[in-house]
Amino acid sequence: MVQKYQSPVRVYKHPFELVMAAYERRFPTCHLIPMFVNSDVVNEETSEDGSIHRIERRCALDVDAPRLLKRIAGVDYVYFTQKNTLNKKERTLHIESHNETFSNRVVVHETCCYSVHPENEEWTCFEQTASLDIKSFFGFESTVEKIAMKQYASSINKGKEIIEFYLKELENEGVTHVPRWSCSTISPALPEPNSLSTSPPEIQHAITPTVSASQAAETKDCAAQDAKQDNGAPQADSLAEILAGTPEDKLDADYIKRYLGDLTPLQESCLIRLRKWLQETHKGKIPKDEHILRFLRARDFNMDKAREILCQSLTWRKQHQVDYLLETWNPPQVLQDYYTGGWHHHDRDGRPLYILRLGHMDTKGLVRALGEESLLRHVLSINEEGLRRCEENTKVFGRPISCWTCLVDLEGLNMRHLWRPGVKALLRIIEVVEANYPETLGRLLILRAPRVFPVLWTLVSPFIDENTRKKFLIYAGNDYQGPGGLVDYIDKEIIPDFLGGECMCEVPEGGLVPKSMYRTAEELENEDVRLWTETIYQSASIFKGAPHELVIEIIDAASVITWDFDVCKGDIVFNIYHSKRAPQAPRKDPLGTHGITSPGVNNVQLIDKSWTLGQDYSMVASPLTCKEGESVQGSHITRWPGFYILQWKFHNMPACSATNLPRVDDVLATLQVSSHKCKVMYYTEVLGSEDFRTACCDVQSLGSMTSLESSHSGFSQLSAATTSSNHSQSSSMISR
């Protein structure tokens, strides 16, 4: 398996030229990198005007590997080829390196780039990508991979420290400024390259303590003029393509440390790569970095597993409009009076603190009065509020806070709380929260656990993730009052009064829900169905040989059919057909045909097998192939009245052509659970032509809403900019 690494943007708050002077001091060897034994200059050349300097080095590394492995391999040192291209005019340094030793067994490829900060020309940015592909290594492939990743991670951590060390060394020598390259600079003749070559002469010549303002102005003007005339500088190469992207798409290392916490280099790489994948497939409609990181942590930074559960969660949020829950959910009065939970200050680590007096809660009464779905909605609103409070506390305390602490008081817990429908509702809530809010619980303090608690714990613990269970601290009786108890996690000043503290707590005391508020089973079922189906989206399953089809009757020829769908699983082909005659009554695909056991599966086929394409019905738009994980919005302006059929069809994956780099399409294909089943979630609407133009004008006046950082809760939302007001009537517009 190919291991990949992508660094965040690391910023040096020093000018590019000064950083380059520090960088050159790493050669021919560096005492700060013990494994870097030596380097020889193999080739060196400079452009006529001196603006481009290329140098190729052969570097020897003493890899920290077991002696037995070195003896089997028959080598003491591992040799790499490093090619550097310094563009003084553009102020960039491109570095590309690969291994010479065992290149037929192991392929290591690394690219780096130093460039000027896009917002501050006195700062320097550094980016780095690398890949490791171990094809075979005498049966020690796994061992070699672990050694390589460990050493590479170690060298990444030291990289910035080394540059900072040499910058400090230059400062001690009185060198605090290096003038920029100018067209008037005369480069001295380069000596013939030799073994253990020192810094390039033109860089040594350029190092001076000060530079005049007139010289700086001349340099700037001349560089601007040469940028138009000189064609010698490389305009694009493979490295530039790898490191391409706008500043807004990239993550700064300082930002990660400030808002996300201390991550290892490989953890940073997983975050950046998953974020980039979401940007490519969701076109910018991605969750915040904190939320992506939670899913990665929940799966121990296994990208494939994290990506799968994150995409499922984003689809769930969109289908049930969870992003708007804090605005739309108004808790019924019975919840406000009898739900014994609420937020209460924060713990010693700055995490929001939620208190739940479960022993005082009438779970049976709440379920009988509200139903399971209302309780679930309320718990989801609590989690959404928790995410919001984490963001606030991150700003207040000046450090990353991504989870909260929950204090559960079990005083009063008895067999009434083990009522079967109540336990069922609790398990359902745990299941939904575990799937969509991973790594949001920092610590769970369970106080005054009675004798009946082990019974409840036996019922619910199998449904709780193992990493989450490790965060549980359970105290029986008054044990929480002693050493190692509550005061270790919560400041004494905010311990609630009902736990012996002095702080008044506004959490309701609960009590029994009056039976007069109970509702019949039929009423509760209708309410649950209403809440569960309270969404504009529908789900459909698609099978090989059994597409899902939707008919839309059009009366006005100038109407506009709009759609928005997510491909939840598998790859599909989206088609639009027109027919003058009404299709047959919808027929469900027989469940047994494709091994479907769930009665909730939605698969409708409308086009009769006896119909002939081109006679009974016609295709009005080119087929669109959609990959798993993609979100598709589009519209079609109808030309004729009649019946339009939207079809989602199973896509047979063609054999991929040979390529060195895996495509996003290939990665998406690996997530498919079944090779013969797909799933989509869709919404369609028909608009009059005037309504459509009005909607387009509203969208253009509001601007694009694809930035999730400005959304209400920071998660995936539909882009408002999915339409344009200047469509031709015969065209179909699809945006992904």
Automatic annotation (TrEMBL):
<protein>
    <submittedName>
        <fullName>SEC14 like lipid binding 1</fullName>
    </submittedName>
</protein>
<dbReference type="InterPro" id="IPR006797">
    <property type="entry name" value="PRELI/MSF1_dom"/>
</dbReference>
<dbReference type="Pfam" id="PF04707">
    <property type="entry name" value="PRELI"/>
</dbReference>
<feature type="domain" description="GOLD">
    <location>
        <begin position="533"/>
        <end position="686"/>
    </location>
</feature>
<dbReference type="GO" id="GO:0039552">
    <property type="term" value="F:RIG-I binding"/>
</dbReference>
<dbReference type="Pfam" id="PF03765">
    <property type="entry name" value="CRAL_TRIO_N"/>
</dbReference>
<feature type="region of interest" description="Disordered">
    <location>
        <begin position="209"/>
        <end position="236"/>
    </location>
</feature>
<feature type="compositionally biased region" description="Basic and acidic residues">
    <location>
        <begin position="218"/>
        <end position="229"/>
    </location>
</feature>
<dbReference type="InterPro" id="IPR051064">
    <property type="entry name" value="SEC14/CRAL-TRIO_domain"/>
</dbReference>
<dbReference type="GO" id="GO:0039536">
    <property type="term" value="P:negative regulation of RIG-I signaling pathway"/>
</dbReference>
<dbReference type="InterPro" id="IPR011074">
    <property type="entry name" value="CRAL/TRIO_N_dom"/>
</dbReference>
<dbReference type="Pfam" id="PF00650">
    <property type="entry name" value="CRAL_TRIO"/>
</dbReference>
<dbReference type="InterPro" id="IPR001251">
    <property type="entry name" value="CRAL-TRIO_dom"/>
</dbReference>
<dbReference type="InterPro" id="IPR036598">
    <property type="entry name" value="GOLD_dom_sf"/>
</dbReference>
<dbReference type="GO" id="GO:0005829">
    <property type="term" value="C:cytosol"/>
</dbReference>
<feature type="domain" description="PRELI/MSF1">
    <location>
        <begin position="3"/>
        <end position="175"/>
    </location>
</feature>
<dbReference type="InterPro" id="IPR036273">
    <property type="entry name" value="CRAL/TRIO_N_dom_sf"/>
</dbReference>
<dbReference type="InterPro" id="IPR036865">
    <property type="entry name" value="CRAL-TRIO_dom_sf"/>
</dbReference>
<dbReference type="InterPro" id="IPR009038">
    <property type="entry name" value="GOLD_dom"/>
</dbReference>
<feature type="domain" description="CRAL-TRIO">
    <location>
        <begin position="331"/>
        <end position="507"/>
    </location>
</feature>
